[in-house]
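Posting this for the archive.
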Amino acid sequence: MQGPSRAAAAASRGVFTGVLAAGVDRARLAEELFAVVGVIDGSATLRRAVADPSREGAHKAQLAERLFSGKVSAEALVVLKGVFTQRWSSERDLSDTLESYAVEAVIAEAEVAGRADRLEDELFRFERIVAADPALRAALSDTQAPADKRGDLVSSLLRDKVTPETLVLARQAVVAPRGRRFDRVVEHYLETASSRREQQTAVVTSAVPLTDDDRARLAAGLAALYGGTVHVNTVVDPRVLGGVKVEIGDEVIDGTVIRKLDAARRAMGA
């Protein structure tokens, strides 16, 4: 985001967090904000009107009132006014911010229920399953198929197997990708979770599944090394043979056997 949008996001975030702190129905708020993003994305006229930096904030607040009063909750309307009245560098910045607030409302609901860690794990694993299955990836990415049909496919795969919040975000990523690939949408959702929870995320690849104790020890070690809290997502890849590879931020710590064999081969070739 450019400067004006960064300032707008910071200002509107204060309104959003205030609504969350007041004890709003987070699931309903998320549903309503996702719906409004869909309305904005579907109307070039509306996008221009709400993001027009030359229009006074009061006028855009009135626009929000006219369009959405009685159609969304009072709390959602407060958030919309908080977003619409700011000055944005681009229309996309405004809608992206609204989407992020919807995602964060889902994560906040998972936090209250003590399911936030599980949500992150499940969403990450589902993205990996989709990435590894070309047929499933094609079915979920087929924009020629009705969005509801793609969403129903996600529900049939995940219902009663994941948290309600995971299902909401997985369906949303498929039903309304907003021009992005599925993996990019999920990546954005997980980044939103990490930011909200003030933690870093590490992706750990190993030849065999890690136990809960293994994950806890890795998380503690990485937290000591990088500071703060670290959430560990795991990938099982038999090709690494042994050891682990850790990706955190822009850094890669590769202690796998296959890497050591490759290094030995290169040394012998030299």
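The chain has a mean pLDDT of 90. Residues 2 and 89 are 6 Å apart (CA to CA).
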